[in-house]
Amino acid sequence: MGGGTADLPKTPRQSAAIVNATQPLAVEEKPTLTELPASTEMAAALLESAAQAIVATDRAGRIVLANRRTEELFGYSSQELLGSSVDLLIPEARRGSHAQHRHEYLRQPKVRPMGSGAEMVARRKDGSEFPVEVALSHRETSAGVFAIAFVSDIGQRKLLEQQLLHAQKMEAIGRLAGGVAHDFNNMLTVISGHGEMVLEEMPAPDPLRWHIEEMLLAANRASAVTRQLLAFSRNQPIRPQVIDLNALIANTEKMLRYLVRDDIALELILQSGLGSVQADPHQVEQAIVNLAINSRDAMTTGGRITVETGDVYLDDVYARTHAGVQPGQFVMIAVSDTGVGMPADVQQRVFEPFFTTKDHSRGTGLGLATVYGMAKQASGDIWLYSEPGKGTTFKLYLPAVTHAIPESPAAVVPTALRGSATILVVEDEASVRDVILKVLAQLGYVTLPAACGQEALEIGKSHSSRIDLLLTDMAMPGMSGRQLMGALSGLRPNLKVLYVSGYTENVAIERGIIDRNTPFLSKPFSRSSLAKAVKEALTLS
Of 158, 159, 169, 164, which Cα lies nearest the Cα of 352? Predict the structure, then answer.
């Protein structure tokens, strides 16, 4: 990745000198726009408005030009970039190979356009790594050849590609499962039919009668498995109708309490005035039961299961990062437990049929696969948040029944929700952090990004101006959000806080993660809910 030279246009914000590749980089006075020739002024404007990071380097790999998007994407200021080695933007483990590729390119430079498959991993100032696509060009000057890199962050594209591949895999498995289930049902029909006819003709004292009865019981159990396979594959006949989820869950409560053992507390938190959905009530009921059973099995020594409902709006930000979801009004059913939680590798496979971490004698591995199939068949979605040792929350979203499409809260944020405060944003997931930063910038806030608690502490110590709000994820490696707030409050007594978590607010309060009056925002969230939560947190005394 690269920089610029005397013959490359300079932006008014940069001071790259006319350099010879063999001479040390010098720094000039920054020219103003009025001092630039018209053509250079136009080139500077193009550089500064580019959606891609543009970096130019000399033969030695020193950065001699970097536009505004480079600063935003990598987290460095232009002063830090200019004159530094391009290795600054490359993960340490990849620097050797990158230098070799750069030297080979400069020996025989040629234009390599975007879309030619040149993907690599880049490194931000905070140490986080992210995938990029790089297009290359070059400029031959009297000072030598300079490489010019056009860098695009493809993290979101990669995420969507992974989700699409996962959806395609689940679709393929679903077709296979549906075909197998239909064939298997035919065979079970034959087995059960002949078994029942034999049983009917067999005298009661016949010693073989017990064997036929056991065979029929096994056939019935196998039929239940095929029904689950059909539900997962979305081939099961459904009878959708407009239903009140609160009433359905209330009617299911007695069965849930029977299923969950005496050492597990069950709590229902049902939002009043909840919107209706159009779905098969038997499928929805089965999904809730399956989620509750999964939660029960995650708590071998007791605990708590919380079932919540709520109206939510899934905006275009959520839709862009969840394949197959259309923005709109949804009704949420959240099932949370205090169980063992799931590591990342288990979370990636949890909806696959027959995948289970339990002993095979305790289940078929079809429960969550059935819930997934039901959600997709109802044009909804299911979202999972879990931390090892801290429990799991499943959020099932079903489209709300509406007579008119409401205006998207993501489209217009009321002026009253905008602000100018300075917010320290701490989130270890780079894609989530990027969304938060962009939304807050659109709302007029000044943001200070950090990828972990330690980095946020350093910012809290070194930042010379006021910090009004700490917006932090609750669970991060090394330091939790509460621990971070405790450390920062000693440095900045007037600092306010907004906690963010994948848990619902009720679950976070119940587990003592936050106090009842502590500002809290549950993931996933829309732009309008983020704006509202930030404004409310800032106005608290």
Answer: 169
d(CA 71, CA 441): 15
- Residue type (1 letter), 412: V
Shared domain check, 285 and 217: no
pLDDT of residue 306: 94
Reported as a pLDDT band with limits 50, 70 and 90, residue 245 is very high
Q: How many CB atoms lie within 10 A of CB 345?
A: 8
Q: Where are the alpha helices (DSSP H) in 240-366?
A: 245-259, 281-297, 316-320, 344-349
| pLDDT of 336 | 94
Q: pLDDT tens across 307-330, in order?
A: 999 999 988 878 877 777 888 999
Output the six-digit token pair for 378.
Answer: 């109802």
- The two three-digit tokens of residue 361, written as one number: 């004698």
CA 250, 251, 254, 260 torsion: positive or negative?
negative
Q: Of 153, 169, 203, which residue sits at a domain end?
A: 153
Domain residues for the domain of 514 are 415-539
Residue 173 is predicted with a pLDDT of 59
- Of 153, 179, 214, the residue at which a domain comes to its end is 153
The pair of structure tokens assigned to 367 is: 């429960």
99 and 229 in a common domain: no
